[in-house]
Specification:
- The structure is a homodimer of 328-residue chains.
- The mean pLDDT of chain A is 97.
- With 328 residues, chain A is an alpha/beta fold.
- Helices cover 31% and strands 25% of the residues of chain A.
- In chain A, helix 2 crosses helix 3, helix 4 packs antiparallel against helix 5 and helix 6 packs across helix 7.
- Chain A contains eight helices and 15 strands.
- In chain A, the strands form three sheets. Chain A has a six-stranded mixed beta sheet with strand order 1-2-5-3-6-7, with helices on both faces. In chain A, strands 10-9-8-13-11-12 form a six-stranded mixed beta sheet.
- Chain A has two domains: 181 residues, Dihydroxyacetone kinase, domain 1 (Rossmann fold, 3-Layer(aba) Sandwich), CATH 3.40.50; 130 residues, 2-Layer Sandwich (Hypothetical Protein Tm841, Chain: A,domain 3), CATH 3.30.1180.20.
- Chains A and B meet through helix 1, helix 6, helix 7, strand 12 and strand 15 of A and helix 1, helix 6, helix 7, strand 12 and strand 15 of B.
Chain lengths: 328, 328
């Protein structure tokens, strides 16, 4: 295993310390328990958005804390859920009297721990469960996984909360965006989790893993390495079959790199995905290309599509000022 | 070779098409010859900044075209200089009557082609040659290479040009920032150039390449894989020896990922670099952490330090609105 670390044990702590120093104008790191909040607390009466999950997906979630997006994020160990005490402490730190919305990717550990935190929490709260990964069937026993669509939910609900939406409005909006969002990924290589010290899965030199999860979960099917056009056709068809956008439908298209894939390839994938939906009359109204929901050093990418309406476009466009997403 | 491409021949064109579509609010792509300009031309009387170089380093340079930074960028084939006709056409497209400043990384092909373009160009022009890589001695036969410090020069001179600086002022400022900037990189893996189809250099499972160039040029020395603390000590000492910042000196610290290294590791490196200079009383006044001057899918990073004064801080902080660098 080749990584720039000092020890597996200290990696997360040291990395968060660097993150906190690099962005001390935007965020603040709490050490025990571990969570990140905005440097400048949101105004009174704003619903507080709290997310979190295993580390190794940066900039998700810590890099998305800030004005217009999350109020707090709880980083767990790599690919490991944060603990309920992190979530509780984060929620209590950012609660503004209007309630707390948890945004949780659908993984057993995250779901359980956020539930426990919720039960112990005194303030009003609700949860949006993210389940945008269409590589699993909708009736899968543990439900679908939450992947790169999470950022879109956090951005859109973040804007609504900033504009004064109530807890129940934020919850309904988050669920609606989740229902309107579908993602699927492909891996060219496995990631290597430091504590394991070797690749999570074996993959042949001429193979790709179609439908891979962001923790290196095996996908729908191993496939032979194909052209980018074939790969995109495969991913886009799975998404299109799920969301069934009509001609004239406005969408947000997000091409997300898993960590080790160069920007050149991500933009090439984006070009092919644009063509796929333009041929169907779908209107690519907004887009985001880059490494946002990563899987350590995995090579590959995911495509995410969100069906938009005027309200969602306005919320997407609203100003955001975080360490790793910023506009307006 | 595992890459998401359709063919080696069409990779650059398809990737640029995707880039242009994803950022059509900020930039515009010209196809023959190939260059990227701002969507909205700068105001009359502003010095025009033109950069360029081989592709494979994205977001450098195309992702840095926009308000407050470059007026145009010329992407060559991967790791190959763009041609003089690209540079001439780009310069003519963005010349605003106040002259054109070329910002050129010090590589033989780039230097030669920008010189030829300059000779054929009718308008007033000057060149800033970037040579921030301290892994080579200052008296190296072809001079030092330009690496991640390029972005800092483009940002600072871009702000000055936007504020109305003259061509000669921009040239002097660019040279000054170059003199005040030092970088060094380390590779954990080689990159793979698509046209070559295999890694550029061999590297053992327990080796790292200290002082590597952004095209995968072999470094100062192969070293055994070391702790992040040792790696940072090595890089920072080379930079510190060059720039000799005194206690109290304000600096900009830039940790740049080469492409395949996770954000977690980059922030950890940043944390260690901050400690290195803080122990020496140096003040980390500004910072930038992320993949900015990449080397395709190489794992590793570089550290860059720029000595700051109040003028440079103000120029660094000035608003910038490009595809991949945005604030203010």
């Amino acid at each position: 295993m080749k990584k720039m670390i000092n020890s597996v044990e200290s990696l997360l702590e040291e990395s968060l310390n660097g993150f906190a120093k690099a962005h001390d104008d935007i965020i603040q790191l709490n050490h025990q328990p571990r969570f990140v909040t905005r440097k400048q607390k949101a105004k009174q009466g704003k619903v507080a958005l709290v997310s979190g999950g295993g580390s190794g997906h940066e900039p998700l979630h810590t890099g998305l804390v800030g004005q217009g997006m999350l109020d707090a994020a709880c980083p767990g160990q790599i690919f490991t859920s944060p603990t309920p005490d992190q979530m509780m402490a984060a929620a209590e730190a950012v609660d503004n009297g209007r309630g707390v919305l948890f945004i949780v990717k659908n993984y057993a550990g995250d779901v359980m721990n956020f539930e426990i935190a919720g039960e112990m929490l005194d303030c009003e709260h609700a949860t949006v469960l993210v389940s945008d990964d269409v590589s699993l069937p909708k009736d899968h026993s543990t439900g679908r996984r939450g992947v790169a669509g999470t950022l879109i939910i956090e951005k859109i609900v973040g804007a609504a909360a900033e504009a004064g939406a109530s807890l129940i409005e934020c919850k309904i909006l988050g669920d609606r965006v989740n229902e309107s969002t579908a993602s699927m990924g492909v891996a060219l290589t496995s990631c290597t989790v430091p504590a394991l010290g070797k690749p999570t899965f074996d993959i042949g030199d001429n193979e790709i893993e179609m439908g891979v999860g962001i923790h290196g979960e095996r996908g729908r099917e191993p496939m032979n390495l194909a052209s980018a056009a074939d790969i995109v056709e495969h991913l886009a068809t799975a998404i299109d079959t799920e969301l069934k956008p009509q001609a004239g439908q406005k969408v947000l298209l997000h091409v997300n790199g898993f960590g080790a894939t160069p920007a050149m390839e991500l933009y090439l994938v984006y070009d092919l995905a644009v063509k796929y939906w333009q041929q169907r009359g779908v209107e690519i109204e907004r887009s985001l290309v880059g490494n946002y929901t990563t899987s350590l050093d995995m090579a590959g990418c995911s495509i995410t599509l969100t069906l938009l309406d005027d309200e969602l476009i306005q919320l997407w466009d609203a100003p955001v000022h975080t360490a790793n997403l910023r506009w307006g």
